Request: fold
Amino acid sequence: MIDEDPLSRVLHVDLSRRRFWIADRRKLFERFLGGTGVAINLLNEECPKNADPLSPENPIVFAVGPLTGVFPIASKTVAMFKSPHIGYLGESHAGGRSAISIRMAGYGAIVVKGASSTPIYLVVQRDGVRFRDASALWGMTSVTSGRAIRDKEPSAGNRTIMRIGRAGERLVSYACVVTETYRHFGRLGLGAVFGSKKLKAVMIAGKRSLKVKDMIQYRKVYNEIFESLVKSPAMKKYHELGTAMNVHSLNELGALPTRNLEKAKFEWAENISGERFAEKHLGRRIACAHCPVSCIHLAAFREPYEHEKYFYKSRAICYDYEPIYALGSMIGISSSERCLGLLEEVESLGLDAISAGVALAWATEAQQRGLINDDETTGLRLTWGNYDSYLKALRLLVDQPNEFYKALAKGVDHASSIYGGADFALAFGGNEMPGYHTGPAAYAGYMTGMRHSHLDSAGYSLDQKSHASGEKPNPDEVANALLSEESWRQILSSLVICYFGREVYSPEKVAETLKVVGYEFTCEDLFKVGREILKTKRDFKTREGFHHRRLRIPRKIIETVTPIGKISEDFISNVVQSYYAKTEP
Amino acid sequence: MERKQEVLDNSPASLGKRLFVVDSDLCVGCQCCMFACSRRYGEAGLSKSAIHVRSVGGVERGFAVIVCRGCEDPPCAKVCPTDALEKRAKRGGVILNPDKCIGCRNCIEACTIGAIFWDEEANKPTICVHCGLCVGFCPYHVLELRGVLKGQQ
Reply:
């Protein structure tokens, strides 16, 4: 890496003592690049074994990479922590202006430890940290608290404001952290870790220049990448209808989870399709900093006030495929308006949309089957498509007035361990499922992936290929494909390159960009480092007590047929075994 | 379109080309223009950018694209105590002579539209020179380099 690069600076913040210091970790960044690679090593160092995820000793690590602020779409921030939701590795990525702001403030990573006794927010700038009182912000929605900080603090346009809503304050184990109102550290409960530290928000701001190795080469490589990003058909897809386009195609395929996976085809899918959202609601498209793609779709949503004639509120609500699946087809919501209403509530409360939707879906089925009664739901009747009940249930699982909502606030694995219904509790490795009932590879991917996300190894894409070609790979081949994809993605996320640009950033291209910022890595070196990072993540999970033999396969996914046929439990188990055998030390 | 531009540029009343914000509602807030502007100096990052994009009170309301309008009679030049900001001979706007600049920030105060930025590292203002490099990095055609006639800013 380049001598003057401020990337090697790691900002440590101790909330308990209200102190901060900066450590130079050049070697760490030289070896593991940044992002995921650096964050897992910092987590290993900072998180004591068996730490309670909601205790002061659980660290929050944010990391960016050497390409951030230098090349386009290296604009994600990796957050790592011990997850209060699944108990092991917590890793979540978000865009917005977060990564650029951290880099421009002159840091490669930020580690937040300890806990404050009163609500606070942090202002991070080039010269360090200011600890600000957040008592007046406590209890506010993620939207309003963001607005308050935006007005109070300087640096508009050069800052990120990460914050939590009430879900984080109330320690819902799948509370998210919202950044720039519409991007999220969504999965695995970073919001609850913020809440446990009485940390309402973190604002990071800065503006600086970064040196490159060779100016001419820099401009050349930059222009090539920029052009491929703007022209690539994949990027066009994300830009036009956005990820919401998947609603239609997955439904056609018969892979759109519907009513807690009672089916994989939704009769009202067209009402909540990307096309319908664009036609009826799309109000503006926006982008993360330093990304020409602009995949963020905002609906302009107008609603009348019920008791006042000619009185309307118009809001912007962000939509994407996963939230539409979780708060649409998965709970039988049949109109785009109602789906947007739920999306807005989830945004304000600061919940992970996927886990929240799947939790509502499980609760609905559990109530139908008589596992929970009306007292437990405080009189709410959860029925498919019942918007009013779902809206109330979301608020209740944040307020947690009784044991049932307290359990639901810890996810479906936990709730079903108390009330029963594990067969239809659709979580893998403790994390509620994303919207792809495409076949066994998707599920094997949720189970093997280090963060139990569809983005770990994109198993759904293997299923879709297999559906198109008619070829059926054996478990070992699936395990190989998942492992090799997940290993390479460690490099992308260490360089914090958005996965949407993964086709533009081929291994060769990545090596070329790295040269410009002073890293001499061959493609082989990169693959090797990717495998090493994956192993470090696995070791962290093992250290914290994770074992793949304890992974659970809910029966529901076997009962509902996928586009490539009925899933066999053995097949998935074999993929999982084979994957873990390949990553044994 | 192209030809018309040429005639305009050669006209005796022409101020030459300057950067226009065609329609800020087309802006997606990606800030690629800001990064492009910084690359003029062969550097990455943002501190040398003479163009700024920020939200209009939250990204949902859209963005303000702030850049020098190339005033014919620029207030920034008037308040410069060391004459470090020289009016450009033919075009509107100013050129900074960094040797003369003492970093007093008067120019920032004087610019009504806030289009003068501060390079903290150099302790000097950064002001658009209307080179148009950013135009090529705006995929949504928010920016355009266009000819202007005297009195027709």
Q: What stands out?
A: Chain B touches chain A at residues 28-32, 35, 38-39, 41-49, 52-55, 57-62, 120-121, 137, 139-140 (CB under 8 Å). Chain B is about 15% helix and 25% strand. The CA atoms of residues 72 and 151 of chain B lie 8 Å apart.
